[in-house]
């Protein structure tokens, strides 16, 4: 009979970037760490208020602390690519992080109690979003072990350590200015938006001083990136720990959303197996009105049941054939689609009736699609989403639509969208598409990685100091 291993209890301080896509996976990591250590989750003022309002984190999870940085709102919607807003956000958030890290007590110093936001237990380890790199360097100055948390695929870390001062900058009006792009081996470096270049440079400069990098990803799907990262001399001795996918076992939602989730479950249960097309461009960016109309036309032409997670203010751009039938979506048992302002994505992707995911390829959605074994029609909108889309294509689980984004090059017509959905989901006719077979294979690998003794389990145990089982 084996007894539970007891390890010295430490205090982990977790610092997310103020955006839901960054906060949610780090919070899930925090819940796992809290099973073995004390955890404090320190968030920007704007996130703190929303977390409390939405009850996303409970006192039973870990301690939640507000950093009074004065940030009024997270990067969202139309402001996500506004350079002034982005710079203002960074210039507001970084000083707050620095101030907190300079003030918290450690095992060897008392810090500055007046600015430690009530944190009195000495901090042993910091895990911070790598976008906060300029603030996290305080950990090195104070000799606090600090791990970068990489919320995207490992390509972002590769991009950071590859970035140089003479890297070309994209013109502010360039069509591709919405995306971070990685260089093709042996080819010239692609121009990068100025704000992203500055961010990657900061991350790259701070990387040699971290105790490790923690990824919301899985080692088995990152072997090519790891091989390239490890060729850089500055990475010698820095452990790369892939602990993903970090997805909440159950999402904390309001009563109203719970009722809607139940209705969605009932609707899905009525649909044939491998028949439903699920569409979501995420919660931040949306295609232009005329493009929303074309996607709507395509979904009708495909002739399969579909769910589209689309904010209410965007729904007016849908084809009339859809809007006229939206009044009693759940009541009409013969209704072949749902247009939802909020959708229970994890439930939808894991349901047997779901066949295809038309996705913006945010990293959390990318991981969820792989974990569920659902093939993807990739429609990246901005930032690292094109990298993520290409990453899925390389793994044969997706086909990407070219020319998309907040600064899209063209109007993608309905007929082209129809062809991609049908090819990805049903190989034209059957339910056995190439992308589906690949997605199922990767899903099995992710399940194995997160099981006891799997690569993600081993990496997490190393992070928190548990011996491998």
Topology:
Elements lengths: L10 E5 L4 H14 L4 E7 H10 L8 E5 L15 H21 L21 E5 L3 H9 L4 E5 L4 H8 L31 H13 L5 E4 L7 H7 L10 E3 L12 H16 L5 E5 L8 H14 L3 E4 L10 H4 L13 E4 L4 H6 L3 E6 L3 H10 L3 E3 L6 H10 L3 E3 L13 H13 L7 H17 L4 H10 L5
Parallel strand pairs: 1-2, 1-4, 2-3, 4-5, 5-6, 6-7, 8-9, 8-11, 9-10, 11-12, 12-13
Helix pairs in contact: 3-4, 4-6, 5-6, 9-14, 12-15
Family: Belongs to the UDP-glycosyltransferase family.
Keywords: Glycosyltransferase, Transferase
Subcellular location: Membrane
Brief descriptors of the model:
16 helices, alpha/beta, Rossmann fold, 2 domains, 7-stranded parallel sheet, 469 residues
Q: Would you write up a description of this structure?
A:
Its EC number is 2.4.1.17. It is an enzyme of class 2 (transferase). One of its GO terms (cellular component) is membrane. By secondary structure, the chain is of the alpha/beta class. The chain folds into two domains: 11-242, Glycogen Phosphorylase B (Rossmann fold); 255-446, 3-Layer(aba) Sandwich (Rossmann fold). It has 16 helices and 13 strands. The protein has helices spanning 20-33, 45-54, 83-103, 133-141, 155-162, 194-206, 223-229, 255-270, 289-302, 320-323, 345-350, 363-372, 385-394, 414-426, 434-450, 455-464; strands spanning 11-15, 38-44, 63-67, 125-129, 146-150, 212-215, 240-242, 276-280, 306-309, 337-340, 354-359, 376-378, 398-400. The strands form two sheets. Strands 3-2-1-4-5-6-7 form a seven-stranded parallel beta sheet, with helices on both faces. A six-stranded parallel beta sheet has the order 10-9-8-11-12-13, sandwiched between helices. Helix 13 (385-394) links the parallel strand 12 and strand 13. Helix 3 runs parallel beside helix 4 (133-141) and helix 12 packs across helix 15 (434-450). It starts with 10 loop residues before the first strand and ends in a 5-residue tail after the last helix.
